[in-house]
TrEMBL record:
Domain of life of the organism encoding this protein: Eukaryota
High-level lineage: Eukaryota, Metazoa, Chordata, Craniata, Vertebrata
The species this protein was found in: Aptenodytes forsteri
Record keywords: Leucine-rich repeat, Repeat
Record protein name field: Acidic leucine-rich nuclear phosphoprotein 32-related protein 2
Length: 223
């Protein structure tokens, strides 16, 4: 008579060389060694084996492409919901491999510090809606041209001069506490001579006035 496992006969086979699974932990009807290729040939099942191998090779290649982070030029890793520490560590491990990325979006990931990372080819970086409190917490991005830091918690403009020697042209700091700093636009443009646009507004003539000169005109002398 047929066993209950007959319906699973030769459904799929895999080699398990080393494992620590006990017999009472198995939930499949039967675990046994599959038929040899010679036996399948005489049974007329050789084509099934070849087809299964082709699918497996294709899946392996696709998986390899998915894990090939080093060659990514544009990547969107926003809204990852990094709730646990191990998720954040694994996320940073992926970011460390982005040595060729040119455009990167990391929006709303609750990130606080990426200073240990280096993105040598990154020209466009969007880290809006995170928890950065300082420019020092950003990754090293020597080729950056467009940077968005909207809706973070950057308190002061201290450290912004670190981008002075980069080709930074566009910067977005909307909805950060530093936006309310006195002479905000003048300080930013004086610190970044190459900057052309701040918060979506092009550089204006009044933005070029040194902060100390504008403060001088506001002085009032009482005799």
């Amino acid at each position: 008579f047929k066993l209950p496992s007959d319906s699973f006969k030769y459904l799929g086979w895999c080699d398990i060389e080393e494992h620590d699974v006990q017999g009472n932990q198995l939930h499949c009807p039967r675990v046994r060694e599959g038929p040899s290729e010679e036996e399948q040939f005489f049974r007329g099942e050789e084509h099934t084996l070849k087809k299964r191998k082709q699918v497996t090779d294709t899946e392996k290649w696709q998986k390899k492409l998915q894990e090939n982070w080093e060659n990514c030029a544009e990547l969107n890793l926003s809204f990852q919901d990094l709730g646990d520490l191990y998720q954040l560590e694994n996320f940073k491990r992926i970011l460390q491999r982005l040595i060729r990325v040119e455009k990167l979006w990391l929006v709303d990931n609750s990130l606080t510090d990426l200073s240990a990372l280096r993105l040598p080819r990154c020209r466009e970086l969007n880290v809006s809606k995170n928890h950065f409190t300082s420019f020092k917490q950003l990754p090293k991005i020597p080729q950056i041209q467009h940077l968005s830091l909207a809706e973070n918690n950057i308190m002061t403009l201290s450290g912004i001069s670190d981008f002075r020697h980069t080709p930074l042209e566009s910067l977005i700091l909307k909805r950060n506490p530093c936006e309310f700093q006195e002479r905000y636009r003048q300080v930013v443009f004086s610190s970044l001579p190459n900057l052309k646009m701040l918060d979506g507004i092009p550089k204006l003539p009044e933005d070029c006035s040194p902060p100390d000169i504008r403060a001088f005109f506001k002085m009032c002398t009482i005799l």
